[in-house]
Amino acid sequence: MDAVPALEEPLKKVLGPATAKVMAEHLGLHTVGDLLHHYPRRYEERGQLTHLADLPMDEHVTVVAQVADARLHTFASAKAPRGKGQRLEVTITDGSGRLQLVFFGAGVHKPHKELLPGTRAMFAGKVSVFNRRLQLAHPAYELLRGDAEETVETWAGALIPIYPATAKLESWKIGKALQTVLPSAQEAVDPLPESLRAGRGLAALPEALLKIHRPHTKADIEDARARLKWDEAFVLQVALARRRHADAQLPAVARRPKPDGLLSAFDDRLPFTLTEGQQKVSAEIFTDLATEHPMHRLLQGEVGSGKTMVALRAMLAVVDAGGQAAMLAPTEVLAQQHHRSVTEMMGELAEGGMLGGAEAATKVVLLTGSMGAAARRHALLDLATGEAGVVIGTHALIEDKVKFHDLGLVVVDEQHRFGVEQRDALRGKGKQPPHLLVMTATPIPRTVAMTVFGDLETSVLDQLPAGRSPIASHVVPAADKPHFLARAWDRVREEVANGHQAYVVCPRIGDEEDDPKKAGKKKSPEDEAEKRPPLAVLDIAEQLVRGPLQGLRVEVLHGRMQPDDKDAVMRRFAAGEADVLVATTVIEVGVNVPNATAMVIMDADRFGVSQLHQLRGRVGRGSAPGLCLLVTEMPEASAARQRLNAVAATLDGFELSRIDLEQRREGDVLGQAQSGTRSSLRMLAVIDDEEIITEAREEAAAVVAADPELTGLPALRTALDALLDEEREQYLEKG
Hints:
By secondary structure, the protein is an alpha/beta fold. Helices cover 40% and strands 18% of the residues. The strands form four sheets. The protein has a seven-stranded parallel beta sheet with strand order 11-12-10-13-14-9-15, with helices on both faces. It has a six-stranded parallel beta sheet with strand order 16-21-20-17-19-18, with helices on both faces. The radius of gyration is 30 Å and the shape is globular.
């Protein structure tokens, strides 16, 4: 037996340093085990080729096709002035379409000899457009020989695996590397308990790995996928089940509100009744708060469904029970906004210890990084003495100097903007772990919630409070129909003439230097196709003031303004002293101006689906109907336009989050929400595999309940350690 288990063998030893380096740098693969878990994206059959007709622009593709014809041209150029330049044009076909390949200069000789009409090969390269036709320039290729025996051997039967590849390493080279390491699959340790595997009729892990990389039939692929999906779902759910189990062992102070205390005084002064949903979710939260281990609950609510009200009632219940409650907001604008709305809702109940404060009152303090020293000292003192029952702030709350008298509840607003370490640091400020309520207005499909926030119990608010108005959304195709854009500005003027206000949202501020690092980040194919930088707040504001919105009171708001200036602008807008607010996404969450009825989102294609939904939720918050106009220059047929059409077609955030997930790769969505699950999902599709995730969650809970330390399941422990390498272990610890 070697000292190093076969699957932990570094690729450098097995494949040589050059290939191993490319695999590590471009695909994140370091060991034999990593490579075995680099699964094919799809399979080609030799008789059935990729549809050349639907090739995506600007993507690295692998196609299997036949050469239809090849022509060698000579031409004059700067390098070859006497007409000696050579260009080889090869047309390939697969029955669904044709594609042009081009080779230049010295690179023409080999393909000119090899790519003869009738030859079949695999081609890999980046799709571009030349003279309005799709082409691959200098593609890498591998001939598929006619000798049946060799093809069957080399290309694993009739099914050719196509791997996620990079320009530096084509799919077939990855395939060849896999053939080298495939014998090691026999030593793969099976993480699934035998009873579970047999009970569900799943293939053993070594067999699944062989079948996924070297299938002989489509049934092989199905078997392998079913098994490998279970691995991913189950190991992840075991990790989360162990977190839930560990949390359930922690002590916490049970917090029960007094029958005639602050909470009932607050409820008595509410000018409206809570929706059924709010009552149901509040009941779930109060039950959790009354137990002696910490609540860990995720509250998801549609934009404007009244989450803040539910959170505030939970905070007041804790204050009633003698504790303190802290609410963390991701930005200063939002913390100030929450503080303003909470003190307004509470009235004299927020004036504890002051003249005119009610008998049951407490103090509500704000704590942000930009407060003056005196105000900050005051706030810190109120927290340390327990004078302040409720504190609202940004991550300034987490600093060492902040001491609480008795922290009982932490409410985190907009979880995905909040680092795990930050939540952890705040939790450490209680004498015992405080209860935790995490809120998000980005609706998350059930399965994603189980996968990403699987350690939290979930409550959902899906009704809008009475008196909320519907929002009409329309796509404004500025390039195809410029008069639509002119009409959009007319609509803004009409809203203002009727006494209302409007937002104009842009992707960029406009005073930044063009940072080449930023410019290189995450560009979609559409961005690449269209080189214009995204529209900027400062430029658009100036154009509107001089042009279509001349005479209206236009103000600007963005993240790089001084906090006091931002707050002053928001106050003026909320007070109706400005007609139009031109802003970046700083207004995305929590900003509440009921009189704002219209929103124009410039370059709407530059925003994600859930972000557009969030932004749109800023209008229609009063009794007048809302209007949201999504301005784009993207062509009718582009994926970006389809995304915008989907947003315009529905106000249902859960429906949109499904669309969002289906359109983006899962990793992005999970990665955006948390760091701990991203790289572990290779085979599992969170939306499509709802059933597997649900069943895996039940199985995992049963396994962990019976054996929390997994002492009887050493292979599962090993798989768990691999999933939770140190950084993720900490991440899950901190939750």
